[in-house]
Amino acid sequence: MAAFFTGPVKHEAPEPLEGPVVPTIVGGTVIWFVLFLVQLPFYGWFDDHGHTWWVWTCLAGGGLGLIGIWYVRKRDAAIKRAAAQAAAESAAEATAE
């Protein structure tokens, strides 16, 4: 156990993983809304057993997912815009030489 506390070990942080972020968030949002709609006909049962928070949690998850979709689409567009700008600048530098 003492080997873990001998001092700080510095490691280089790994590169962040980039994947299909927008479809992932859209899929999760759809799942939250489907869960809400599936539970809605059984609202009486949830109310009788004190579990109405399950229904409203699914609705909140879907609503927050809509905000997430907006956010990741803007982020994705900004990343693509920055990459295009960097490519244009490097092409301009290459032609200037």
From TrEMBL:
InterPro entries: DUF2530. It holds the Pfam family DUF2530. The lineage of its organism: Bacteria, Bacillati, Actinomycetota, Actinomycetes, Kitasatosporales. This is DUF2530 domain-containing protein. Keywords: Membrane, Transmembrane, Transmembrane helix. The chain crosses the membrane at residues 21-41, 53-72. It comes from Streptomyces lanatus.
